[in-house]
């Protein structure tokens, strides 16, 4: 009999890649989607086009993290062997505008899933999508599972609760419950408001003449950027350890937003030089003198995470997991995808958010 997995947030970047790898491994996959006034299943549409086609063992269900009875019912009906709790209000900047909703979804939502497992007494394994945002980023030391947490946003605070309640349910009720403390991971499916995808889309649109300029916030922020499909494989490996535990998944390298943008323009053959500093900093096309990148303070956050770099030693030694894709490879893949998309679809929507 094939194993059954439930993925909350299957329509997200990670959920869609995880569904693919679990189907490849022979799982029956169930994923939660949300009701919206427009369809929001673009990332999973290629997996199945027809919900009446039962050849592909992939099933979607309406699932809302703020609705406890909805979650309990799903878990009781599906009786999954593994639950991957990926659903979240995952945008750090938005969490400053919607702190209560973010907390309800991310913190209490995780508790609702754990409590539903506890109440149902179903024998299942649980993965929580924990995050490098917990560390707060005020040191340039590589961060591991023992490093202190200093959350600096409502998002990070909500995830801190989710992280600890996962450990608490493991300790209190013997659940096979683990945290993957994932550093940033990106892909062509990355949400368009995260900085990497915002940059690669803008580069593609500038390349095609649909956009003149890219406006960014803090160019000095440093992130440890990996390739998302490798991270979802790590999630599966964490869940399939004999004993539950918490693992950092990261590349061990860090770069600034400025460096990411420079590399992205390089892919389309533009060499950017940076002039000025602070809000007056700008990125200039060194062959034409054109100003292609500007700083807009609207993208600054009330509280910033300056630097994140992970130490994935435990995942490497205990799981045999290692991030393989270089930043250059990642940037190239993302820019190329957006260049192709702009070529086939033309002007592809607004990028100012
Ligand atoms: P996305 O934002 O791409 O996907 C989030 C998913 O959660 C979507 O399916 C979304 O649905 C769903 N969702 C949001 N709010 C609710 C809600 N109230 N009820 C039910 N579903 C909801 O995130 P990623 O795929 O990038 O990340 C997956 C998880 O990993 C998240 O928990 C994120 O916080 C965490 N994480 C991500 C990292 C990264 O670098 N990507 C790093 C560390 C942690 P819809 O599509 O309808 O909006
Ligand atoms: P992050 O991702 O906050 O790390 O959270 P994001 O890409 O939004 O920001 C990374 C850094 O870039 C700076 N930045 C900008 N960010 C955005 N979005 N837009 C801009 O124009 C811009 N200019 C500069 C930000 O200030 C920040 O320092 C992601 C999410 O996936 C979380 O869910 C996850 O937990 C963490 O990664 C690890």
TrEMBL record:
Sorted UniProt keywords: Lyase, NADP
Enzyme Commission number, as recorded: 4.2.1.47
Cross-referenced CDD domains: GDP_MD_SDR_e
InterPro entries: GDP_Man_deHydtase, NAD(P)-bd_dom, NAD(P)-bd_dom_sf
Protein name: GDP-mannose 4,6-dehydratase
Listed Pfam families: GDP_Man_Dehyd
Gene symbol of the encoding locus: gmd
Function: Catalyzes the conversion of GDP-D-mannose to GDP-4-dehydro-6-deoxy-D-mannose.
Residues covered by the NAD(P)-binding domain: 6-334
Enzyme class per UniProt: lyase
UniProt-listed HAMAP family: GDP_Man_dehydratase
PANTHER family (UniProt xref): GDP-MANNOSE 4,6 DEHYDRATASE (PTHR43715:SF1), GDP-MANNOSE 4,6-DEHYDRATASE (PTHR43715)
Molecular-function annotations in GO: GDP-mannose 4,6-dehydratase activity; NADP+ binding
Cofactor(s) this protein requires: NADP(+)
Family as reported in the entry's similarity comment: Belongs to the NAD(P)-dependent epimerase/dehydratase family. GDP-mannose 4,6-dehydratase subfamily.
GO terms (BP aspect): 'de novo' GDP-L-fucose biosynthetic process
Tagged with keyword Zinc: no
Catalytic reactions of this protein: GDP-alpha-D-mannose = GDP-4-dehydro-alpha-D-rhamnose + H2O
ATP-binding as UniProt keyword: no
